[in-house]
Amino acid sequence: MKNKKIVLSLLISILLPLKVWANPHDMEIFNNDKFARPEMKNMCSVCHENPSGGGTRNAFGVAFEANNEVITNNIRKKFPELFDLLKASVPRILRVKPSVFVVGQEAKVMILGANFANDSIVHIDSVSLESTPHIEHTFVSPKRIDLTVTFNKPGKHTFHVVSALGQVSNVFKVVAKPQKTL
Predict the structure, then answer these.
(1) Is the dihedral of CA 140, 112, 159, 107 positive or negative?
(2) Could you state, in order of their start, the residue ranges of all structural domains in the chain?
(3) pLDDT tens, residue by residue, 33-86
(4) 158: Cβ–Cβ under 8 A, 6 or more apart, which residues?
(5) What average pLDDT is seen over the chain?
(6) Angle at the Cα of 45 (from 18 to 59), degrees rounded to 5?
């Protein structure tokens, strides 16, 4: 009887840490990703070598953990067996606030729209996507990006957003007016 308790205690102490190592929160993040393939949801094998979960992480699990448990379009592209990229939606700008700027004055800008991602790139006044550097911005939600901008010349200026998959939003026009002099 005493030997059975020792063996049972030994088995529990070996197997319990493996199961505890699996993180249901990670599964929840994957399950809530709008591009996650439905047939892969609730599967421990998405992140782990062991289909029951716990233990060694597979390539996706390692990439996910290295990215602070955030799923980006770059990760989605590397693991197409886990994500349905055909469902990826093109970013769309509905409104830019403010829409009128003063030349030479720094302004906080909100780009409102749909289908933005944390790795989207904002372009301003670009003629060619390859030749225009991206603008530093803060991803707030799939419907909002914040940034700070200063226009140096008056006239019409354009904004557009590019997803990490290369999908380009519509162009949204704003105006920069010269400073009023007294």
Answers:
(1) negative
(2) 2-87, 92-177
(3) 888 999 999 999 999 999 988 889 999 999 999 999 999 878 988 998 998 876
(4) 124, 125, 126, 171, 172, 173, 174
(5) 83
(6) 95
Sequence-distant (6+) residues with CB within 8 A of 149 are: 101, 106, 107, 109, 124, 135
- Whether 15 has a pLDDT exceeding 80, the answer reads no
- In the sheet that holds 100-102, the strands lie side by side as 100-102, 172-177, 155-162, 121-124
Predicted pLDDT at 119: 77
* Residues 163, 35: Cα–Cα separation, whole Å: 14
Distance of CA 21 to the CA centre of its chain: 25
pLDDT above 90 as % of the chain: 47
Fold of 92-177: Immunoglobulin-like (2.60.40)
pTM listed for this prediction? 0.56
Say which amino acid occupies 170: N
